[in-house]
Design brief:
mainly beta, five-stranded mixed β-sheet, 110 residues, two-stranded antiparallel sheet, elongated
Length: 110
């Protein structure tokens, strides 16, 4: 699991195959797989606030042997919160956080 800042809208993955003839593919959050070139960064993978799952699928040249590697990326909301997978309904953060934006502070001088 990796955590990124809220200003991160997307990421890339770079997969490297140890075997000639293997095909590499990646997808984010259960979407469609896109082809990867070994050793080259993927196209941009959009991230959602919360838990993002990136699957990297490697298919051997025999087209029967398939291995999927999963990367989890946590993207906090604008207030620094991200879902806590071990305790649904709770949030974790490096600093105190809120699920809703803080109230606006308005000052006026008569």
């Amino acid at each position: 699991t990796s955590s990124v800042s809220n200003s991160t809208a997307s990421t890339t993955v770079t997969a490297t195959s140890a075997y000639a003839g293997a095909t590499l593919e990646a997808r984010v959050n259960g979407g469609s797989y896109g082809s990867l070139t070994s050793g080259v960064a993927s196209s941009s993978l959009a991230l959602n606030v919360g838990t993002n799952t990136i699957d990297v699928r490697v298919t051997a040249a025999d087209t029967v042997t398939i291995k999927t590697y999963t990367i989890t990326v946590e993207l906090p909301n604008a207030w620094g919160c991200a879902p806590n997978a071990s305790r649904p309904g709770l949030l974790f953060a490096a600093r105190p956080c809120q699920e809703t934006p803080p109230p606006a502070h308005v000052s006026a001088t008569p």
